[in-house]
Amino acid sequence: MALLIAIVLALTVLPAPWNLAVVAAAAVWEVATALGALWWSQRRAAQVGAETLMGRTVDVRDACRPVGRVSVKGEIWQARCDEGVSAGQVVRIIGIDGLTLVVEAITPRRADSRDRVAP
Fold first, then answer.
1. CA angle 67, 70, 55 (to 5 degrees)
2. What is the pTM assigned to this prediction?
3. Averaged pLDDT, groups of 10, the chain, 119 residues long
């Protein structure tokens, strides 16, 4: 748009040496704007599709022994957990098999002597 305005100004209003300068400046501005918009749109990977669910922790809706259902961001997905988990537990998504999520139970970390606070 800036380039179009600069060309119209150069042809109708501006004298000889300034018309080329204005058109050149507008062309540089247009290229910089386009490159900036391209950089802005490519700065992060697309966040769509089932592949973005990998590694997410989710709640179990119906017991997975081995097949049940989990809640992912308000959506209900069918899930498979080989070790079996009860409803209400938290699991991690480790894979996708068609429209079934493959999940694993998250085991709480055991406290050892390094985690204890001295009285």
1. 100
2. 0.54
3. 82 84 89 94 80 90 94 93 92 94 79 46
